[in-house]
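User: Can you model how pyridoxal-5'-phosphate sits in this protein?
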Amino acid sequence: MNVFEKTENFVMKTYNRFSVNFVKGEGCWLYDDKDKKYLDMLAGIAVCNLGHCHPTVSDAICEQARKLIHVSNLFHIETQAELAELICKNSFGEKVFFCNSGAEANEGAIKLARRYGTEKNPEKYEIVAFRQSFHGRTMAAVSITGQGKYNEGFGPMLRGVKFAEFNNLDSVKEVVSDKTAGIIVEPIQGEGGIVPADKDFLLGLRKIADEIDAILIFDEVQTGIGRTGKLFAYQHYGIEPDVMTLAKALGNGVPIGAIVAKGKAADVLKPGLHASTFGGNPLATRAGIEVIKIVSDEEFLKEVERKGKYLAKKLEELKGEFSEIINFVRGKGLMLGAVCKIPCSDIVKLALEKGLIINCTAGNVLRFVPPLVITEDEIDYGIKILKEVLKEHAS
Ligand SMILES: Cc1ncc(COP(=O)(O)O)c(C=O)c1O
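Assistant: Here's the modeled complex, given as C-alpha cells:
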C-alpha cells in the first residue's frame, strides 16, 4: 500500500487532502516523493515562519533530543523557564503557561478569564467573541468560534458565550455587561478571510474591558511570531491585551502553544487549576527559544514588513490585471489575502499542480502566509505561477 491508500484505509477522514506526499523541505521549498519542487507560500498554515527545517532550529532540536526530551511539570525545566523569560522580555507578558496547540491555549485563556470573573462574582463567566472568528476545534474553542460550520452537530456549546460583530463597537456594547469575564479577538481574523481589526475597534475593546473589569484576550495564534511585521500583532496598535494566546509558529513546526498574561491576569491560574502533560517540555521549548531569538531581531522584522509590502504590491498588480477575479487585497506584513469575486479552491488546485502552495480561506480568499524568510525572487516566482493560473482560469 502506498501513502495515499494507507491514509484512505487507516486515517480518519477529517481532512480533504491533495494527493501530494511531501518528503523533504528546505527554506520556502517542499519536495514531493517524485522530487518535484513546490514554492510554499502557506508555511504549513503560518507555522514554519523560519522556513522548513531551519538549520538553527533543527540543530537545536536534534541536540535537545539527545539530551532530554521530556520531564513532567512536577520539576523545573530550564528551557521552559528560558522561553517564558524570552517571551515576556519581548512582549507585554509577565507570566506564561505552555501547552501544545492554539485551541488548547484558547481553552486555557477562557478558563483563566472565567476563574478571574467568578472569583469576583459567580455570575461573571460570560465570554464575548466575534462572528467569523476562528479559535480552534476543541469544545470550548468551537463554542467561541463565530462560524456555524465548526460547531453544528456537536451538541450544546459552552454556556455563556455571546457573539458580536467584528469591527463594530456598538455591537460589542450590546452584549457586554458586568457578567462578562472575557473578550476574545483575533487582531486579524485568519480563517475568517484575512480581515484586519481596525485600530479604533481594538482601542475600544481595551476601554470596554477595563470598564467592566473583563480579561481582554488577543488570539495571536496565527498573527504572532513576526507574521505581521511585528513580533506580535498587538504591537501595531499601541495597546496591550491582558492575555495573548500563541501556537503555530512558536515552534516552527514542533507542537507548542502558550498563554501569555500580565497584571490582573498573570496570577489567576494557581497550582492545580490548570495543567498539561506535554506543556513546555524541553524539546518544544528549546525549539521556541531558537525561534523567538531569530524572529525578535529588529532587522528581521523590518525585512518582514518590507517583503510584505512587496508581496502586497505584486498582488495589487495582479488585481489590476485580473480585476474580474480579484476584488481587493488586504492584510498586514506577510499575512495577506486576495479577496476574489469567485470561489477560489480551483485556483489553489491549479497553482499546486504548477508547483505553488497557497490556500483558500472563507471560500473566496486566497491566503498568502509564506515563510518569513522568503526572498523577493521567490515572491516573483510565486506571482509568475499565480499569473499563469489566473490567465488559464480567466480564459
Ligand atoms: C487564530 C487561531 N486560533 C486558534 C487556532 C487553532 O490552533 P490549533 O489548530 O493549533 O489548535 C487557529 C488555527 O488555525 C487560528 O488560526
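A couple of observations from the model: The domain at 3-54+298-394 is CATH 3.90.1150.10 (Aspartate Aminotransferase, domain 1). The mean pLDDT is 98.
User: Helpful, thanks.
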